[in-house]
Records
---
Amino acid sequence: MTQPIAILGMGQLGWMLSRAGERIGASVQLLDPDAPEQPGPNTLISVESEHWPDNPGTRQLRAHPGWQNPNALDILPNRIQQKTVLDELQLPTAPWCRPKDDDQAKDLHQTLGPDFLLKRARGGYDGRGQLRVKASEATPLPDWKTEAIAESAIGFDTEVSLVGARGRDGRCVFYPLTENYHRQGVLTVSLSQPTRFSALQRTAETMLTKLMDHLDYVGLMAMECFLVGDKLLINEIAPRVHNSGHWTQEGATICQFELHLRALLGWPMPQPETRGTTAMVNLLGMEHQQEWLAVTGARLYWYNKAHRPGRKMGHINLQHPEPQRIADWLRELPLPADYDESRAWALERLSFEG
Ligand code: AMP
């Protein structure tokens, strides 16, 4: 009998995991983080997010014999511990330090340069819980500085992420590096272009393998990096399926959600093959629009969540063997004006492919 899987979390990542599971015959149950049901003793428990509320139910899950990846989930959600483990493994990240009680901005500027970010150790993501501190603006440091890391602002050329999975036997498979565009700290567009970053692929894979091996990790993990010249600096590690891997639903023979489940179950994990170029557009803070569906190539995933400004409401994947078709569809896609820069960014890259 197939071992059941429970996912802590009922958001879009949980939904897409359970949908992928249904297709391949894996049983996936979603657990409400506010009052999780306790799964049977034979169940494997994974998460859709590394941040969950602390309550008696989640504490009980953490102690369940089927709780997966205790090392990664104890260490990585805390930025101080995440940065520390990356340093120990000599994996390059943006220069950082822990602000002390009596540190003023000028003390940190001395260590980190004229522009740094304070990032809360816990709970912050997508640019939340972050403050940019510029020497020119004399910003006072907030009270929470001692529960944060301070990190140099990086003048990167672009942002890329590596998504891959490690199986129970320690074997890893990866997707090609994906290029990501963020608006105010939140991903708007991802592009997977087959050969664009092939020169960096091996290095990136070696970096993430080292971390997954160290944590004895099983399942899918994402490594977000800044690219500076030909050097990768890790920005953040996510021990879960990741927004920058959504393109794999149309762009790869095995999508990231299925790959995570296969890894957990110890099922076959051949190297996924990719289908040329794929673009993914996040639908942030938008109401549902049937006009998106007038674009032939638009594969819409709508999360059916209550509308809030800026909230991730859905995404659209665009995949075609000819990148110019993707560019045409992207031009046709009805998007608000604050997507102009993100769209122009993607169209410029697609135009290089001819
Ligand atoms: P995070 O929540 O840490 O993933 O940050 C979200 C986004 O903010 C990143 O993808 C970058 O676009 C930007 N960002 C975060 N940290 C830095 C940094 N040290 N230097 C420059 N940009 C950053």
---
Amino acid sequence: MKKGTVPPDRVRLRRLAEKALGEAADGNDDLSGQSPEEIASLIHELRVHQIELEMQNEELRRTQEALETTRRRYSHLYDFAPVGYFSISEKGMIEAANLTFASMLKVDRGVLIGTPLSQFILNEDQDIYYKHRQRLLETEAPQACDLRFVKKGGQPFYARLECMLLNNKGEDSREIRAAVSDITETKRAENERDNLQAKLFQSQKMESIGTLAGGIAHEFNNILTVIIGNNELVMEDLPAWSLVRENAEAVRVAGLRARDVVKQLLLFSRQTDQKKMPLQIGTVVKESLKLIRSSTPANIGINQHIAEDVAPVFGNATQINQLLINLCSNATDAMIDVGGAITIDLGNHIIDEASSTANIALSPGRYVRLMVGDTGHGMDRQTLDRIYEPYFTTKAIDKGTGLGLAVVHGIVEKNNGALSVESSPGKGTVFTILLPAYEGSIEQEPETSIVLPKGHERILFVDDEPAVSKIMKHRLEKLGYEVHGFTDPSEALAIFSNTPDAFDLIITDMAMPQMTGEQLAAAVLKIRPGMPIMLCTGYSEKVSEEKAREIGISSFVMKPMDKTDFAVSVRKVLDETKGTTQE
Ligand code: ADP
Ligand code: MG
């Protein structure tokens, strides 16, 4: 109960008592002026009121206690709120703060009171704070901003401030109240999302560059075939003593280098057909490293750690090989001047739910991890940002093509894996590749998993080059065919004219000195029309597929022939012409 609000009843009573006492002091100390009834009644009334007063007193105490409890509850709510609270003066001095805010900053609350808030804000973000305060004072409207506070010990954290201005003390001393939430997690998630976005853009860019590069590479392949082929023809005709030979040789070397570049480009743009199969990646890597070791300078060591139990992957050995060669040659380039070591690490790796959200590119599961590290000069941020771009190179024009890592990137993507790099100037570089482990069983050896089409037909094979004739006879026999090999076309023709039905197929080279494949084919077809004939030509021979068909030649293959393609072509010709031949 507040002062000055004594009930009127009590006021009257007090007056009465005072009057009676006053009269007593005037000589009537026995209150003789009052009748005994009057005095008794007065005393009774006074007692009643005394009791009443005591009751009110008691109530007051209880109210006070309740008030104290409420106050305690609110200050507890304030102090231990999930967000930090503070109040500052217009000048920025901290006037009050809750314990949450103090513990966010890892200081005692006492340290905060009377200290400028700016002392706890990261230097780089002071500007944000001042502008924010200024705006708040100017507009008097609630404002929010994000800035970094610094904890005791120097560690910064991101916070969101939501502030309002209070005018309760009058115009000259306004008060700013703020709620502070730690948004480090949110910021981290935002950064991650931005990174992912950037990665997405990057891979989309790579995708379109890949398509473009693929088109160019195909075009180039054709042009290069003409250049290399014609140059070879020129060289064949040049006498050994000719000075022009040297120039022609330079053209050949450059041509071959260009062909390698195109090959890389095609690989990068994924336009080469690379069959995938279950692979014992440990074996592939070991084999690859044998080759790499032999071409790595002596001042660079190679350490390999290949886990015995490394899981198989579903991929292509040539691609894995390419990948390692590219990474190791970059590592070598980075150490060539001072020497150093390449470390290859191959082992199993598990991605669980938690690490999958951290690295959204991969879903949880079993992976194989291939790490290629070096102790070379490393890379700065600017270089790192561009290394996967095709044609990005920091090397001399005759040293780098800028395609190595673009190819690595393409291969890893195509295998649903992930590629990351850690590097800093002078600290070396580590590339880490994760490839999904192959979950199926792997009984077959990689080589035997391609089933070559076979047969038992009788084949007459003609090539004036004894070595080629021998290899091809061997190849065909391994497929089950019965082969008669000749190096002289006239001899082959003689045998054929004697026993034209003893053969199911003739395979002949085109360019032979005594008789061309075309002439042989014409003679054979005269003897036995419809005889299946396969003509093998090099790039420089002017026989088009139409021309060959016009003569009556069943099939036309380009040299050099791939083992698989060759077996398939042979089988195809035999199957296609089966109906027209006499067996
Ligand atoms: P290239 O080797 O032809 O330059 P890459 O695509 O293989 O092309 O590499 C691109 C660039 O990345 C290199 O020029 C080099 O600057 C940098 N780089 C790649 N690997 C490494 C490494 N291991 N150490 C230092 N720098 C590297
Ligand atoms: Mg390279």
---
Amino acid sequence: MAGFLDEIEPLKQTALAELKAAPDIAALEQTKGAWIGPNGRFTALMKQLGTLSKEEKPAAGKLINAAKVELEAALAEHRSELELAAALPKHPTDFTLPGRRRTLGKLHPLTQVTEDIVRAFRKIGFAVADGPEIEDEYHCFDALNTPADHPARDSQDTFYIATKVENVFPSPGGEGRGEGGRSSLLRTHTSSVQIRVMKSQPPPVRIIVPGRVYRRDNADATHNPTFHQIEGLYVDKNVTVGDLKGTVEFVFRELMGSDVKIRFRPHYFSYTEPSYEIDFTNALVKKMGKDWLEIAGCGMVHPQVFETVGYDPAVWTGWAFGFGIERIAMLRYGINDIRLFYENDVRFLKQF
Ligand code: DAH
């Protein structure tokens, strides 16, 4: 008996030392098996209890059980230590090192200017409308009172697409003249969306349409085959040129500062009567050595356009305008070459 009891303590010590020395979870599991698994040395010791006499058994059993509880506690403790160690980074963080800078992306300058323009119009109750860049001749020209033989078609030459492209923005009741496009093209202006919006809803209308447009132009410092416009359309009863001028002035002051001045010059567009070009000036324009800068076309919606979309021209009046976004961005940021907007050069884009 004495020999048996004497064996327990040193065995326990060895087991504890081995458990604590296990370098990882796998080694720990293996050590556990070797000691208290079904074929472990401690388990074998417990099995020997049966060979002891009645008097010896209780004391020996108590001692073995106590040792086993101790081993299991040591096992659990070392396991959580190992698990924690495994979860920690291999190399400790050096908090004295300088931080790593994340480079944040930015909105393109044209997007920023567009958003500012939209924000200004929203303040006075305009909603944003959208339309397709692949248009048909009907919405781009015919419905805007610009028939096939009209000279304005030459000044807005564009890219024609030979096959008929499915009309993804169908406007109700538009099955008439050329609707759906005998010829598809890349839209030359956002004015086509005027037609789509008026055909899809009754008056009054108060919308702006920011979007990309296309012309068959050679790229130079002030031209690019694709650029951006914002169209505006306001239809209601008793709308006047004064409303138009006041609106344009408000938006440009929001955008470019309170020193902005606006001037209307008579012009011709087939979908407005009367028509004007809008000139603009402020300190920036003066700094460029100019008195005025032309920024937009506009006018009172032509009665023929109202007829075409099914609005009664005896009841409804309205104005429309379209201006180029690049022009405004170039002026605002002092950019002298339009092509910079499209080159995706981060050295340029980072500056805005
Ligand atoms: N669509 C014209 C252009 O691209 C601009 C324009 C002029 C739009 C008069 C209008 C307008 O809505 O009424 O040059």
---
Amino acid sequence: MTKTILRALKGETLPTPPIWMMRQAGRYLPEYRATRAQAGDFLSLCYNSELAAEVTLQPIRRYGFDAAILFADILLLPQALGMDLWFETGEGPRLSTITTPAELAALKPVDAIHETLNPVYETVRILSRELPQETTLIGFAGAPWTVATYMIAGRGTPDQGPAHALKSADRATFSGIIDLLTEATIEYLSAQVKAGAEVIKIFDSWAGSLQGQDFDDFAIEPARRITAALKARHPGLPVIAFPRGAGDRYAGLHDRIGADCIALDDGVTPDWAAANVQTGGCVQGNLASHHMVTGGDDLVRETRRVVDAFRGGPHIFNLGHGITPDASPDNVQLMIDTVRDTVRDTVRGA
Ligand code: CP3
């Protein structure tokens, strides 16, 4: 029997939606923290294929999620293109910056990325051997705009100001960065598929800060190009696009990007998204991640609201964004039980 996530991605409406969770391998799990300590630090974990496969498998063993997402990071690609990357404990990523034509020209050619990223492909190969046969393996990359925001600023920024500034001041260099990332992302994701990834997800975490024509040029167009190139090379490959913060621009995105599934953040209501986005194909999402911290009746009620709203079409249950380190592993179990309808009548009046 075909895996449930692949069925949903092909447009099938299932009685119970398949489930996985963004950042499902992460610091809220004690077994993840133990393996990360064994690896030394986060980047060493990403490049240690055995241990990266191990942390990918941990949430599958604990919860039986329907999909596993490769354990890696969107910022490994700029590193493979020759940028410096490190993580400041408690603060997040730091990179060397790129804002000039000379710095753009100094990056490595696209073909050179595999030298750095080979351990990631090895992680995928291990996982495709070791995952339970019903579990779908998802590969991923960051979308060019989101990755560019980190390359231009050298760190995460609240408003992506430095990237917007370069876009205004030197459109040619900015577009050159986006084009290079688009080409590199196609090669990176294609290599993941060759290694065994069954579905590809493109994370555009900062798509929402692009306004007007910029949203079309730098969120939609790169995702469309990546999706088209991957599907041409790997016929039938399902693609999930996640332009986070798109708001009412989520409507019509299946067609505009050519993706099989649009992942929704929790900035849109499930009812609105069922009427305006799910009409175009499979949707993924979109329970607010704070319920994994707060739990209780609210979690059960909101989980049911998401499941009920999307019941009439293809749906993969997920959070609206990644699970946070302060989440409780028990709340994750409660969410899964609620989706799979094993918890009944726990919410008074629901
Ligand atoms: O979803 C998964 O479980 C797969 C693995 C994955 C990670 N990062 C592991 C990770 C994926 C898909 C990502 C994507 C990613 N990375 C995004 C896009 C999705 C999103 O969350 O918006 C972004 C913007 C990044 C860049 C990044 N990596 C940041 C900003 C940080 C620091 C913030 C934080 O949570 O600490 C990371 C680190 C990171 N990536 C961690 C994990 C599990 C935490 C690192 C640790 O163990 O200390």
